[in-house]
């Protein structure tokens, strides 16, 4: 990543980006665990410099969410500060009026599985739970894998291998889509490092995943999965630059809709100018996926191979995607792969959080949940003298609105 001054110059040269930063009232960052301290500090610097004054984030209200026990940011060699997580940023505590820990689990309902996952989340697992996982591993390895069950792997090379193997097992002839790129290096290289594939091979029966939002109202969003059920000759859009047969795939999505998938474009811009562009179908093969790509997913059935698992949080993220132990198939597991980062453990110990409870309240036909929370007010960047305040969520939102 470029240094913060270079990033600021790029925003200043980009009229749209400059306008967005200056008009913004609030900035919401999800999956904050994937944001490193350097990026967090750079974003705060850009906001403050663009908007003027000395207010942190230039006065923008910052809301972040996520779980630092999940996958950590990619910690590059360029980072000489030694600060890995966003909460290590110098401006972290000054960025928030309050920090909360949410404790109610929604994805799973089985108390035993929840207890197991919470132990794994913190890098621990009691002997009884380890025995359950090892028995599950033995049973899975003796069973034949169901191709309809999503497979998760730590490494992209395993994902590619499994997807290619599944494609070869289908008897249908494959249609090839080769990305059409324009632009000059080094910008063109950014497209090659992006998510849209250089080549994509599809046939009837292929499991695929969307990699771009197409229609949020119909649920056709990034990460949605489906099956190719046929092909249609393209009439309105000429796609011979990516497919010599001029065919478009028809995908039946698991969420219900059926759609003919047309090419999308991915661009690299510099100072408001498009300097590189890739045209390709917004699809990837999806029999197998990386654990990194599955963060945020919820599955009824799942097979995960952890033989090459590395790093903190990986086992927890993989296992916690599935709703129940009954839906979990496991292989390559060993207790040594359960890891939680020491800095994350210390972070959650460093501020006291109350339990979040809910109670139902009927308002006509609507059911409203009222949350009662212990909120930690961080008074300064050194975390000294942090105090607890008790509010309902509705009171909290109301207080924020009154301040506008």
From TrEMBL:
Q: What is the lineage of its organism?
A: Eukaryota, Viridiplantae, Streptophyta, Embryophyta, Tracheophyta
GO BP, sorted A to Z = DNA recombination; DNA repair; telomere maintenance
Q: Which PANTHER family match?
A: ATP-DEPENDENT DNA HELICASE
Name the UniProt key words of this record, in alphabetical order: ATP-binding, DNA damage, DNA recombination, DNA repair, DNA-binding, Helicase, Hydrolase, Isomerase, Nucleotide-binding
The protein's enzyme class: isomerase
- Whether DNA damage counts among this entry's keywords is yes
Tagged with keyword Hydrolase: yes
Question: Under what name is this protein listed?
Answer: ATP-dependent DNA helicase
GO molecular function of the protein, one example?
5'-3' DNA helicase activity
Catalytic activity, as annotated = ATP + H2O = ADP + phosphate + H(+)
The cofactors named for this UniProt entry are: Mg(2+)
Residues in domain DNA helicase Pif1-like DEAD-box helicase?
10-128
Q: Which CDD domains match?
A: SF1_C_RecD (cd18809)
Q: Which family does it belong to?
A: Belongs to the helicase family.
EC number(s) recorded for this UniProt protein: 5.6.2.3
List each copy of the DNA helicase Pif1-like 2B domain by range. Answer: 192-231
